[in-house]
């Protein structure tokens, strides 16, 4: 039985061409690891410039990390926050939500939970922004939101939200785990966002263990690296090939022994997106998302928990689990794979669990239909 993968949103399958290049770089690195390490910094800076250009950002405003959780720690635990309260929505990803919980505990600050509905209740971006802002006390100094909610697939209009939070003196931190590759992310349009962390191994389909953080230059002075290393203060000579023109950028560098092959292959990831056409990929993702929603509603009959308003949609499509299966939660993933040869996501959502489908452009509609029918047979036969 052929395996059908309907969970590209948790960990995508790296583009085969990129995977091969990463393996080539790894083999090349191991020929002489010492020289390879000393040649790393100039090479990584070149890759960082290419990634920045793809997302229309200044390369000096980026820093690489192994995933978005690490990048969000850098900001949420390291940024200077004026005296006041912290806030986040009740749809935040658990690991990142815990970062803000820890910061609130450390600083002895109140932490407010903003209630955001799921499903069809939300009809527009303006309605969503108003709903979030009216729940924030006037004492709020930092708000954490996801660009795309992992549990429901709701896409937050971060550009407009950031404009309004900045007017109120609220720092906006965006968890962009599902932003790059799932949305048309352009940092030159997000001037009012205070921090953005992203993954490159989900919708971008880059190598596993590649992510980044971004902060506009106006916020560099507010952040200190959480982990001290070679470039925290001065820039030793062997690192001068890496962005030595801006101290903050160098201070955020992961300047330690590592085989950097995965990050080198980001250059090939970007080139592949450019050759295939970014807009074409994003359009095809939307078409597959719409197909999944339409067919899953017909085949399964489960309640849709993702928004129907197109402005609030992402490639993630989530449905309510039958009450008979909620207690199984993550066990469903393993049983579906073992019994039916299909992989889905079971995701926490408002104190329960939901069924989530995420598909990429490689998956044909016939495969999606076959996968959905196998899911149906698991639940109903």
List the main descriptive attributes of the protein structure presented here.
single chain; 381 residues; alpha/beta; Aspartate Aminotransferase, domain 1; 2 domains; seven-stranded mixed β-sheet; three-stranded antiparallel β-sheet; globular
What's the gyration radius in Å?
A: 21 Å
Instruction: Give the strand line-up of the largest sheet.
Output: 2-8-7-6-5-3-4
Count of DSSP H/I helices: 13
CATH topology of the largest domain: Aspartate Aminotransferase, domain 2
Beta content comes to: 5-15%
CATH H-level superfamily title of the largest domain: Type I PLP-dependent aspartate aminotransferase-like (Major domain)
- The unreliable regions are none
Quickly count the domains.
Answer: 2
- Estimate percent helicity: 25-40%
Head-to-tail CA distance between termini: 18 Å
- N-to-C SSE string, H for helix and E for strand: EHHHEHEHEHEHEEEHHHHEHEEEH
Mean pLDDT: 96
Structural class per helix/strand content?
alpha/beta
- CATH class bucket of the largest domain: Alpha Beta
Largest sheet: 7 strands, mixed
Query: How many individual β-strands?
Result: 12
Shape: globular
What is the level-2 CATH architecture name of the largest domain?
Answer: 3-Layer(aba) Sandwich
């Amino acid at each position: 039985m052929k395996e059908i993968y309907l969970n590209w949103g948790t960990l995508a399958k790296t583009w085969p061409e990129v995977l091969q290049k990463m393996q080539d770089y790894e083999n090349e690195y191991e020929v002489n690891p010492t020289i390879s390490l000393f040649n790393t910094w100039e090479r990584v800076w070149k890759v960082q410039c290419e990634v920045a250009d793809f997302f229309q950002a200044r390369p000096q405003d980026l820093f690489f990390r192994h995933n978005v959780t690490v990048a969000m720690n850098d900001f949420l635990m390291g940024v200077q926050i004026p005296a006041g309260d912290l806030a986040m929505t009740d749809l935040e990803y658990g690991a990142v939500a815990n970062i803000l919980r820890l910061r609130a505990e450390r600083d002895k600050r109140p932490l407010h939970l903003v209630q955001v509905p799921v499903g069809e209740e939300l009809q527009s971006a303006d309605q969503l922004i108003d709903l979030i802002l009216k729940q924030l006390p006037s004492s709020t100094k930092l708000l954490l939101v996801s660009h795309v909610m992992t549990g429901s697939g709701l896409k937050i209009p971060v550009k407009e939200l950031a404009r309004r939070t900045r007017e109120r003196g609220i720092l906006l931190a965006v968890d962009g785990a599902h932003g790059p590759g799932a949305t048309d992310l352009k940092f030159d349009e997000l001037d009012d966002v205070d921090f953005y962390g992203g993954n490159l191994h989900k919708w971008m389909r880059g190598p596993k263990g590649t992510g980044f953080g971004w902060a506009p230059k106006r916020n560099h002075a507010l952040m200190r690296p959480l982990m001290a290393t070679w470039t925290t203060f001065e820039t030793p000579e062997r690192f001068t090939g890496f962005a030595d023109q801006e101290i903050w950028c160098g201070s955020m560098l992961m300047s330690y022994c590592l085989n950097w092959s995965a990050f080198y292959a980001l250059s090939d990831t970007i080139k592949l997106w450019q050759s295939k056409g970014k807009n074409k990929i994003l359009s095809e993702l939307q078409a597959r998302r719409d197909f999944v929603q339409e067919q899953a509603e017909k085949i399964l009959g489960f309640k849709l928990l993702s928004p129907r308003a197109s402005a609030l949609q992402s490639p993630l499509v989530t449905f309510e689990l039958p009450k008979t299966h909620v207690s199984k939660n993550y066990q469903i993933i393993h049983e579906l794979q073992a019994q039916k040869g299909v992989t889905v996501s079971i995701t926490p959502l408002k104190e329960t669990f939901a069924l989530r489908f995420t598909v990429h452009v490689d998956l044909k509609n016939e495969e999606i239909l076959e996968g959905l029918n196998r899911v149906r047979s698991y639940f109903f036969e």
